[in-house]
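Supplementary notes for students who missed Thursday's class. We covered one full example, reproduced here. Read the sequence, then the structure, then the short commentary at the end.
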Amino acid sequence: MNRVRLLLMALVSVLLVGGLVGGATFALFTDSTESQKSEFTAGELDISNSDKTSWSSEVENMAPGDSFEKKITVTNTGSLQLAFAATVSKSGALFGGATPATVEIGNAYGILNPGASTTVTATVHLPLEANDDYQTASGEFAITFHAYQTKNVSPELAHADQTNDNAYNAVRDAYYDGYLIEDGDGNVIPLDDDNVLGMYERRPDSSIHHLVTDGSTDPKLWFNNAKDDGRYDYVLVLNRGAVYYFAINHVGN
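Structure (token representation):
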């Protein structure tokens, strides 16, 4: 019996060794399970406005001192909250010269939830001082509404550093305070046309207005001393997509 057992053990040993030498494989039992497939969809950023037709027939025959006002409804038609910024582009003789017509946008910056709307007011004004050079002059302008994602985007705090106090501007016959705008690291943010997409001012009466750079190469913000006293809040949107905010507490002198 012991002899038989030894022979069997020897045979098993030979088989095992032969199996190893011959490259036999031994697989473990395996199993796997897969969760139900889940679909992820990116949100949509979409903005629309209520006035896409020309207003030309409504603004004809302006006389010096005339103003024309148009209300535009801006709607968030997408699925994500957005910030919008309105900008103006102008061309033509009516918007040039010494006393040109102006375009001002009220409520030019805002934040809208999906499905929400707000009213933006565009005001065209021909100064009373406009002379005969503007007779039959024409011009055109367009308002563009830019939409920005707000989720996961945090505006950065900037600082207004006053560099000029009550400086006289002979062309405009007015006095201005000059400010350099600096980011959190103390770097100057130039307020020139190549750098700024839009700059928006919330006045003490809570109205929001678009500040036009119009090809300016001046890096400073020039604040008219004749403005009402109070806090002025600013949102600055750069061409590269960065958004800054800062405030000026104005006291006239």
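Commentary. The CA atoms of residues 64 and 132 lie 10 Å apart. The radius of gyration is 34 Å. If anything here is unclear, bring it to office hours.
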